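User: Please predict the structure of the protein below. I'd like the answer in structure-token form so I can feed it into my own downstream comparison script.

Assistant: Understood. Taking the following sequence of 470 residues as input:
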Amino acid sequence: MSRRKAPSTPDLPRPETLDAGKQQGAYEALRRAILSRQLPAGSRLPSTRSLAVRWLVSRGTLEAAFDRLHDEGYVQRVAGSGTRVCAVIPEQFIAAPMLAQTPRRPPEPDPPHGGVQSHVPFVARRPDASLFDLKTWARCIARGLLAAGPGALEAAHPAGLPALREQIADYLRSYRGMHCEADEVIVTSGIRHGLDLIARTLLQPGDTACVEDPGYKPARQRFSLAGARIQAIPVTDEGLDTEQLPGQARLAYVTPAHQAPLGMTLSVSRRLALLDWAARANAWVVEDDYDSEYNYTSAPLAALKSLDSNDRVIYCGSFNKNLFPGLRVGFMVVPKALRPSLLRTLQLTGQAVGATDQLGLVEFLGSGAFVRHLRASRQAYQARRDTLLACLPQGCTVTGQHAGLHFVLWLPAGSAELEFCARAAAVGLTLQPLGRFCVEVALPPAVIIGYTALTLAQIRFHGRALAQLL
């Protein structure tokens, strides 16, 4: 009886990719040989012993490469028969055939970003991401993932990971004077996300939503999209003028720690009056605590939520302003009566925050790295504020400089805000006129000055240009 001769094993020369990384290089060389049909379907791969001698690598390295090819479906490993190329390779299952070869067109460049940008003098409300310790963050993400295991990646927690909500509640108790527990916290992607959830859940067409005037435009716009009637409430030196609040309203939106954009702090008497109004009007108070961590002259007041004995305040905070804007993690502390409906809206909109960033924040908060970052960034921002103030001419009037990420520069009487901003743009400065934040009130001319995302050298250089304009 004649025996069919077994096919010879193709000669595979030593690949150059082995010099960069032996295991990865061996895997790529063998995979490339399979895809190019140098190792056709059904052919046997060389033994790891012979290939190790030919390629000058260890058998263990090749065994690892063979195992990876087997796991991905390129080869079959059968005891006594060696390693053979599969009849059908994985690419035939995951790559659709191209119908026709068409020339690639160059992609159109994105238009210039029209939103708030960093390192542009003097754009407001931007943290300096270069102050953030990326190595520490990478270690926190790695530790969080390894400690949680795959179960944390599979479990669905609409309100956010329980461990993160516990850390947030602990921070708010320690640093914002609030009496809250983890079951009151909902993790969001930022304050705007929280405002969107509030608008979708609480507002019906025709409802009255009270906002500060001047105030935060995105809040006003989001409430308008829900069909609410916006009632602008003027702001005085003590913050929101509570005597101007209507008898009935669905909610009132405030920035009590550092009013956006004027920068004053809502006084204690106004805080108590606001909470009393909410109880009488059966209304909700939305507290936007966007930059309360940065006070340069005194300890901050406790959050408005800390005085909320009737559970009428929805507290909104964010890590995007004090860590880095691209993080996209914020949180809300919500009244118990609203939690089920807000969570339903959150699940319907499908905007939950990814588990990886949440696990990283659990470690970042728990290790004390977050508070250390706040201390260091506060010191850096105070130095930048002081440097910019020193650049301004004598006699200039500024307000709101005691805290936060910006202050208001009041222009000489009779100045035109838009004309001043146009002259500033001509010398490379981006300023926001105060009038853009106003609804009904008419205030003297002023511009918003941000300084936190600039280096000291940038502040000195552009500060001189600003001084010349004045």
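That's the full token string. Residues 369-391 form the longest helix (23 residues).
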